[in-house]
Write a structure and sequence with these properties.
Elements: E1 7-11, E2 14-17, H1 18-35, H2 41-56, H3 61-84, H4 100-123, H5 131-149, H6 154-172, H7 176-202
Antiparallel strand pairs: 1-2
Helix pairs in contact: 1-2, 1-7, 2-3, 3-5, 4-5, 5-6, 6-7
């Protein structure tokens, strides 16, 4: 897998490596499939994680470990969407807004997870060049994927928050292709958010917690 860490081409003075390009192109396709609520979004997400895991394994242990977690969450998403397939009128999954309780739990998990992972990265510098923003992006990605697996519209909001840090961090660390892809992610996220938002309004809404039946 040495070739995956070699230079593919140069763009605007930035050196683009094969693993960065392939993994992020797959990630971009994954997000587009997620917008369309296609079950294939999860196998592509798993494959993207596998490509990056193979590229990082052996010299960037922290990055490889993060991709292993992403692959595990992708398997969970596949299982969830398999269970929920056919619940919408078009035969795919039904999307919805999370309850306030679910939102609170996800925010708490994101906050606690970011601090815990950042402290781990700080204690073991070889795991990350930028512990805090790297931890934020990693935990934010996992939370976003969990919300996507549950068919929550908040999935898109989580991706936007990840993009706000992901774009400058990738450019700063020399992963220019990742930075460009994150910009495109932003546009796809806005379109996908609008689509899921409108679909959630057309589908059956869950009863509010504590409300009378």
């Amino acid at each position: 897998m040495t070739w995956m860490n070699s230079e593919a081409f140069t763009l605007f003075g930035q050196h683009i490596i094969w693993s960065d390009m392939i993994g992020n192109i797959l990630g971009l396709i994954t997000l587009a499939l997620g917008w369309r609520r296609s079950l294939w979004t999860w196998p592509l997400q798993f494959l993207s994680g596998l490509v990056l895991f193979a590229a990082f394994y052996g010299h960037l242990t922290g990055s490889a470990g993060k991709q292993a977690v992403v692959m595990a969450v992708a398997l969970y998403g596949w299982w969830q969407w398999q269970r929920g397939r056919g619940t919408a009128d078009d035969g795919r999954i039904t999307v919805r807004f999370a309850s306030w309780r679910e939102r609170g739990l996800m925010l708490a998990a994101a906050a606690v997870g970011t601090v815990a992972v950042a402290l781990l990265f700080t204690a073991y510098p070889k795991l990350s060049w930028d512990p805090w923003p790297d931890a934020y992006i990693f935990v934010g990605t996992v939370v976003a994927m969990y919300a996507q697996a549950k068919g929550m519209v908040e999935f898109w909001f989580a991706w936007l928050l990840v993009d706000l840090v992901g774009v400058p961090l990738n450019f700063a660390n020399g992963y220019a292709f990742s930075g460009f892809v994150y910009v495109i992610y932003g546009a796809l996220v806005l379109w996908g958010m609008r689509d899921w938002w409108l679909r959630s309004r057309r589908g059956p809404q869950p009863a509010l917690e504590g409300a009378p039946a």
